Amino acid sequence: MAIPIWLVTTVGVTGVLLSKVDYNIFFMKFFRNLSRSKARARLYNNKYAMIPVMLGIEEPIKIKDDIDAENAMHITREQLEEMDGFEGTPLYLSIKGRVYDVSAGGKFYAEGGEYHDWVGKDASRSFGTGCRGGVDRTGMDCLSESLEGLTDNEMKEIDRWLELYETHDKYTFVGYLVDDPVEKIVMHQTLD
């Protein structure tokens, strides 16, 4: 009996046995973790930062909400949708309500890029599940900000992506995603 090639495939130094793996997601996470480990080494002067990150046993980095809050912009969903790189606009994405300018990564985030689906919206769910279109295993829209029904591992994946954007030397924190206050007032008055 022949052993299927997908069963015996191993990947580089990790030595991980892969079976029926989405290679795009695998390599996307690999390079994300490589970038995170470089940022941790740079920020914390830790030349061994790569080991726990690549093994998935790293302690999470605290995101500095209070420090950023004073100078941060408040961006509505409608404003975020316009930041899609078209007509000279920057490339913004949101994860867990934090908005980042990823224009420096235009090769990946501009139209036709691997991660363009994440631009102009809060797609936190997609960062956790790896689903980038349609619906995920729970039947929820992949490209949404909903964290409903996600597992602990999926929440950790979101936090790993958040760390990447927060510590990346080319991507910048812009502000917080907020509901449109005018729309909120109008909706509240029509419900009364």
Automatic annotation (TrEMBL):
Residue ranges of the TM segments: 6-27
Keyword Translocase: no
Record-level GO cellular component terms: endomembrane system; membrane
Family membership: Belongs to the cytochrome b5 family. MAPR subfamily.
Pfam families: Cyt-b5
InterPro entries, A to Z: Cyt_B5-like_heme/steroid-bd (IPR001199), Cyt_B5-like_heme/steroid_sf (IPR036400), MAPR/NEUFC/NENF-like (IPR050577)
Alphabetically ordered keywords of this record: Membrane, Transmembrane, Transmembrane helix
Domain Cytochrome b5 heme-binding: from-to ranges: 75-178
SMART domains tied to this protein: Cyt-b5 (SM01117)
Organism: Skeletonema marinoi
Name of this protein: Cytochrome b5 heme-binding domain-containing protein
